[in-house]
Structure formats: structure tokens, C-alpha cells
Amino acid sequence: MSDPVSAPRRAKLELLVRKDDSGDGFEVREIGSAVAFIRSRPQRVPASSFELAEVASRVDGQRSFILKNTATDRFLLITEPERFLWEQMDGARSLQEIATAYVIRYGEFDFDIIPQLIRKLQRAQLLTLTTTSRLRQALARNRRRPMAKMAESALTVLERINVSSRNVQPVFRRAYRFGGFLLFTPAGVVLCAMLAIVGLAAGLKLWPDAERVVSGFGKSPLMAILSVKLLFLVTVAAHQVVHGLALVHYGRRVREFGFTFLHGFVPTFYIDVTDIFMGSRRARVVTAVSGAVVHLVLGSLWFLVALRATPGSFLQAFAAASGMIQWQAFVVALYPFCFIEMDGYHVLVDVLGIPTLKQDAMHYVSALLRGAAARRFTRQEALYVGYVFVSAVSVAAFIAFNVWLVVHAS
Amino acid sequence: MATSADTLTFLRSVRLFRNVDDTDLVTFAGSLRESPLRRGQVLFREGDHGDEMFLVRAGSIVISKAVTGRVEQVLARMGPGDFFGEMALFDRSPRSATIQADTDVTLLVLDRGSLARLTEDSPRAAAAFFQSLVHVFIERLRASGDLVAEVTRWGLEATGLDVESR
Questions:
Q1: Min CA distance, A103 vs chain B (Å)?
Q2: By Cβ atoms counted within 10 A, which residue in A2, A70, A148, A243 is the most buried?
């Protein structure tokens, strides 16, 4: 009688690791693929690329969820435990840590659930196990150079910095109750609009004297602009907080709020607003727009400060520059044609009903330029070409304007 | 230090010389010189130049190829009777891998000049030697294919990539 067919053994690699670059010492380590697998850190796609909704019908009392890849329009039906695993796959936790979290949460472990879920997610292009950026790969290749090694170590430390909380809903509820709700009342909207008009008038009044205004920076305008940018970073937190208040306004849940270094070197605040996908279109639009309004209001206030400040003083220059940056942030956040998937872009694709507008447009125009796409312009193709053209012109104009500003300030 | 009689006895057990008769084997043995290598010592590195092949008489060596930084992939381990570095006898390309001693090792060294003289003086023995060499080359070629497949399998398993469904 023959033996039943057994599963093939897991592959192993023998790697030789030198003790130093020049010496003779070494050790050989055998690395099994299973070890590499459990140490890998699965990274789900960004929050803007998927939607998660609970399925209304329940079978056997089990909760089910629909996970949608908004870039490919592919749907997955996942169970509640799978949703838990999905939420763990943030690129920071290893599969080993995720499995441990699963055991703690459910008190048991099904050894197949993680590999099966990973396969499902990969098929739906919702997950990647490649967490290393090109920058990190380049640094790793040049690790022998002290500067590259230092930069790599610094990035590793920064990437580990993630100050966040998943228990922020009560905080946002309180903030909403103690005044946050005013932002979503007609009076709040009118007040914002009035501030915008007054701020615009102040800005226009300052414009003819722009040279004298920026002269307040004195001999180090670039350093001053950098400090303005630093202050701006703080207001990004306010932007995210208002997104959170909008969620509360529409009865949705803020899943997470925190601070991290994006790609290891871009400091940023973030908020998980995915729950709003389950809300109405109006709720999604208001949530998207409300964050950006923070910059409009702050920009207006800064322009008013600049107008009241002593002409040619540092305060006037600082306030005017801050106002300019806030308004730029407002435009960039809401202006959908800049190749960046920010608030305005999400509103646009929601209205157009084309969740993959940028990707499809880039793909089509690229094929068109290579001569690989048919030159028939239906409404959709015209939309693609229009999006890429307006975005390219807008980005060029934005860069030119900022260069002009810096040159002018210098 | 081993005597010539010891070397001759050893060579008789080596697969590479199994079709070489005793008279020619004595000639071969005379062309070889002994070289010790202490544990952990690197004999040569990938990219070095050389014109010698080596026969492991005692101990074991590790053959590796650079991957990244201080990490190299182990291609093979070799023990008594195995040989390496033979490519340098036939072309002048840099060494394709790094050789280091896993234990204290004794090697027998055959250089390009000695092989040329042997070929001239004893063509029949040289033909037998080359024939055995070709057989080993074929085996190693097959093993390389297997290694590529194994490394690919490792990568697929390590990443959990589901290729069949793509």
C-alpha cells in the first residue's frame, strides 16, 4: 500500500552572513520560507482605495462584510474574523503578530485562515507583502556607506513612530457636543463664507503691497517660510479633526486618529474615515469638504491679522505667508485636477461615478500617446483626456506660482 | 603533510580520476600541490581572477554568491573528493563565486599550466579526465536548474503569492 501523498516540504534557503566586510568569519543561517512568511508584514491598500460595508443579511447569526477595491471595482465577501485580520494588515504588524492578536481575540486559531485570506486579498489586489519602498531598497543596497546606513537607521526609527488611538470616538463625540456641531449648522456655514469673503478682501488689499509685506521677513526669508510650513503642519491636525467631527455629525464612527511619518520622513496626521463610505453621498461630500474648510477659515484669519499688523513688520509677513499657504492648502485639498487623490478628487469621482478616474485616465492617455489606444472620443475618453490635460496644466501652474513666490520673496 | 602514496590512494577514490589508469594518475599526482585552509578563511572571492582548480582532500568548504550587503546565498557545500574552480582552467573570466572553509581544509591545487602539460604528455589520461569533468558539469547544470526552482518556490511560499489564480 502506498503512502498517502504528503504536502511538499517547505523550501529553505541557506544564507551566509559575513561577520564584517573584510574579515574571513561567517555563519550560515538556514531560512525557511515559512519563517519569512510569518515575519512578512502584509500591507493593505490605502484607505482611499477600498470600502468596507457590513452585509445587511446575516446567515447563522454570523456577520459578513463586503470589501470593495475602489480601484478595480472587485468585491470580496469576508467574515467577521477575516475583517479583524484585514484591519491588522497595516504594514506594521508581522503575520506572526497578527496571528497572536487573532488568538487573543477569538481564543482559537485556524491555521489556514490567514494564508487563505491573503490569497483572496492578493487576487483582489487589496494587499501587498512588499513593504519596502524604493528609497529603502536603494539605502539597503548602499548600506556599506556610512551615510546610507545612518539614513536607513533614521528611517527605521521614524517609521516606528506612530502615535495613534483607535478609541477616539468618545473624544470626537464630546468635541462635537461641546461646539463642534456648530460647524455643520447653517449659521456655521454662513460664518465660514463671510470669513472667506472678508479674508479674500484682506488678501486683495494686501496684494498691491506684496513686496513691502514680504520684506518683513528680513534677511532670511527661506527660514521664515520654513517656519510657516512647520506651523502649517499643526493645522493639518485640525483638518483631520474636522473630518472626524463630520463623521460624528452623520452618525458614523471615527476608527482611528494619529500621527505618523509617511514613508518614514513625511510627518503627517491621519484619520480613518472609512465608515463614511456607508453613509449617503451628501455625507461623503460634506465630510470631504469640511476638512479643507479649516484652511479657508485659517487663511482668512491670517490675512486679517496681516492687514491689521504694522506694515513691513515680521508679523505681517508671517501672517500673510501663513494665509497664502492655508489658502493654497484649501485649493489643493479641494481642487480635483492635480493627480493627487485628495478630498476634492474623492468628491469628483463620487459625483462622476468613476472611482478609478485617475488610474483609468492615466492609462488611456499613456496608451494614446504610444499610439496603442483608438482615437475615438466618447464622453468617457474625453473625460480621461480632459482630466489629464487640466491636471498637468494645473500642476505646472502651481509649481510656477510657488517658484515665483519664493523668487519674489528672495 | 601527506606522502605521494597517500595522495595516489586518495586520487583513486576521486570520481574525477576514476577512468585514469595508475600510471597516468602518478603523473597527475605529481602536478598537484597541497594547500591548507583554516576554518572560516576565504580562499577566493567572487570577481577575483585565478587559473587554478581545487580538489578537496579533507574538510569541507562552502561556495556562496553575493546577494546583498554581507549576505550571500550558499550555492553548495563540498567535502573530500569534490572539486571546484575548474572554470578558471578553461576561461579567463573572474571567479563566479566565493569559496570559504567551513572546517579546517586541505586542498589539492591544479593550475592551468600543469593541465596543459598533462594534456600534451598524456592525452589519453587527459581525455579520461575531461570526460569525467563533463559528466560532473552536466550534473551541476541540472542542480543549478533545481536550485533556481527551489529559490522560486521559496519566494512564492515566503510571500504567499497565489500565482495559479492570477
A1: 21
A2: A243
Q: How far apart are CA A142 and CA A123, in angstroms?
A: 34
**B78 min Cα distance to partner chain A (Å):** 14
pLDDT digits (tens, 9 = 90+) for A215-235: 777 766 777 777 887 888 888
* Cβ neighbourhood burial of B160 (10 Å; 0-12, 13-18, 19+): buried
Residues of B in contact with A28 (CB under 8 A): 62, 74, 102
Q: Are A16 and B76 in contact (CB under 8 A)?
A: no
Q: What is the mean pLDDT of residues A146-169?
A: 78
Residue type, A119: R
- Residue A263 pLDDT more than 70? no
Mutation site, A9, A17, A26, interface B, largest B CB count within 10 A? A26
pLDDT for B77 equals 93
Q: Which of A167, A134, A136, A130 minimizes the C-alpha distance to A149?
A: A136
Task: Tell me what the mean pLDDT of segment A62-73 comes to.
Answer: 78
Q: What is the pLDDT of residues B41-93, one digit of tens each?
A: 999 999 999 999 999 999 999 999 998 878 899 999 999 999 999 888 888 88
- B110 DSSP β-pair partners: B53
Give A-chain residues touching B100 at CB under 8 angstroms: 16, 24, 26
Cell of A228: 510657516
Helix, strand, or coil (residue A46): coil
Distance of CA A408 to the CA centre of its chain: 32
Chain A residues within an 8 Å CB radius of B104: none
pTM: 0.49
Contact criterion met (CB < 8 Å) for A37 and B160: yes
